[in-house]
Amino acid sequence: MKLSAPKQVTWWIAIILGGLAILNHYGVLSVGLGNNFVLLMLGYLLLVLGTYLKGL
């Protein structure tokens, strides 16, 4: 299996999702999902897909 680095846009979106999860956890920002774990997992899933799928 050949892995590739995710595109910069994909990486930044994942970082923003993780940051939103942290800010939501500490009550600085209220994101409507109601669960910080969902935001954090979406960010990690995006990074994993960006690594496995070429062009993402």
Low-confidence stretches: none
Number of DSSP E strands: 0
The radius of gyration computed from the alpha-carbon positions, rounded to a whole number of angstroms, is: 13 Å
Give the number of domains: 1
Q: Give average pLDDT, whole number.
A: 87
Topology:
Blueprint: H1 8-25, H2 36-52
Helix pairs in contact: 1-2
Structure, explained:
The protein is built from two helices and no strands. By secondary structure, it is mostly helical. The protein has one domain.
Give a summary of the structure in a few sentences:
By secondary structure, the protein is an all-alpha fold.
Features:
56 residues; mainly alpha
